[in-house]
Amino acid sequence: MANTTWNPSDKSANVTLTGSNLIATASSPTGWVRAIDKQASGKYYWEVTATTFTQTSSAVGLAGIIADLTQNISNPASSFKTCGVIRSGVFFVEGNSTGISFGAIVSGTVICIAVDLSARLMWIRLGAAGNWNNSASANPATATGGVSIYLGGGIAAYPFFIPNLASEQAAANFGDTAFAGAVPSGFTSGFTAGAVIPTNELLTQAALEQWGSGTPVMQMTQAAVEMWGNTQVVNPLMIATQLAVEMWAPVASASITPVQARAMILA
After folding, report:
1. What b/e string do you get for 63-96 counting C-beta neighbours within 10 Å, with b at 16 or more?
2. Is 220 within 8 Å of 249 (Cβ atoms)?
């Protein structure tokens, strides 16, 4: 089965891709690149070699499609739908430290990543012999010691690299060559290409990600979008209902009373 690569169409202009789009190099700060392919379920293992890693906030990990990769993943205010490790060695999820720190990642280190997207759990180790999540008891093969992440469970995740300094470079191994470390039992060897995600999940991915951030309009319309995206023929009533609830969410939280808001929906 084919494996993914970095995406020439989903990167900053200052990042150059070489080596069959597996090596990403920044010409200036701040850069970013996502992989071509996404996965929303299943277990995957891949490695990224931090060829040149010198800037504290340079990072590798997983991101959602709407994640703003121009921002540091250690910033809770701007790091939306990301999980990974920065060069200082801290493991972050949604901009918050998990409390796991590996110590500074030196250039040449192989960063090993295992993720169970169905269970929404992630493990990282530095080098083939490193401890998963810096714990001797953590083990992806037995689903122990994993860090809970938001991505997965139907919400698609993409591998990413953020080089925050000129000349920062990372080489991804998504499974086309031999890995430095052993693939955990039960995990796919590599981050495979060609994931097929149902139409309604594709339509609702952005809605779900926005919903998780607490956007009222998206919370109100999640069910509507799922039903709409899952129909072969668009139901005019669904379109009218979707528009109505989008109007209801902001209005109901303003000066109009709940009775008036509900009346607008019924109308």
Report:
1. bbbebebebbbbeeeebbbbbbbbbbbbbbbbbe
2. yes
Q: What does the pLDDT look like over 159-194, one tens digit per residue? A: 999 999 999 999 999 999 999 999 999 999 999 997
Size of the chain in residues: 267
The conformation of residue 89, written as its DSSP 8-state character, comes to: S
Q: Hey, where are the domains in the chain?
A: 6-189, 199-266
Kindly report, residue by residue over 145-159, the tens digit of the pLDDT. 999 999 999 899 999
Instruction: Give the single-character DSSP code of 125.
Output: E
Class of domain 6-189: mainly beta
If 0-12 CB within 10 Å is exposed, 13-18 middle and 19+ buried, where does residue 199 land?
Answer: exposed
- Nearest one of 62, 49, 34 to 179, comparing CA atoms: 49
The stretch 27-35 carries a mean pLDDT of 94
